[in-house]
Design a protein that fits this description.
The complex is a heterodimer of chains A (122) and B (107). With 122 residues, chain A is mostly beta strands. Chain A is 0% helix and 52% strand. Helix content of chain B is 0%, strand content 48%. Chain B is built from no helices and ten strands. In chain B, the strands form two sheets. A six-stranded mixed β-sheet of chain B has the order 2-10-9-4-5-6, with no helix packed on it. In chain B, strands 1-3-8-7 form a four-stranded antiparallel β-sheet, with no helix packed on it. The chains are: A mainly beta (122), B mainly beta (107). Chains A and B meet through β5 and β10 of A and β5 of B.
Amino acid sequence: QITLKESGPTLVKPTQTLTLTCTFSGFSLSTSGVGVGWIRQPPGKALDWLAFIYWDDDKRYSPSLKSRLTITKDTSKNQVVLTMTNMDPVDTATYYCAHVEGPEGLGELNYWGQGTLVTVSS
Amino acid sequence: EIVMTQSPATLSVSPGERATLSCRASQSVNSNLAWYQQKPGQAPRLLIYGASTRATGIPARFSGSGSGTEFTLTISSLQSEDFAVYYCQQYYNWPQTFGQGTKVDIK
């Protein structure tokens, strides 16, 4: 059974750095074709693909946010960590982590975490 | 970046009726297209992948079609639990972009 769960602060101040952790079980991030990453959703708005990391340590970022994002993995701990610098109130959103598996890591998102709401406010 | 455009933004349908949702890609994504359902306060749920393959446990009233740049999600007979927001997503290349969503509400 595959599960993913997000953890991190619920409130951050503008200009601070956000660090979110996705802890997963039921699969290995060492398996070829597997990836874990992050999608966010501002309140009442659409889903926004942020970043994914893959079994071979390939990393892919949203072009519009690439300068602010870093994604890393700890295979031994079954964790993926996303950092986002210089947070702004417009970054207020529910942040989801998700699992993907497919050729070269391209595939549908068949497992999602429950999401964690991050509010950016002073 | 591939832009995904969904229409309509809102679709008002009576229970038991058919709903047809559209998704258009700014360039061909072959059949690398997924549909998700999202209810308030919940994470998205995968409905369709490969443009037309139902995910595990998804009822047969949900069907997907299309390839290239034009895709359709059809719900043959809307049930009360189907009123939700639906998103398409391309996974042809990175970033794996989503559409803006179609809200299906009760007429």
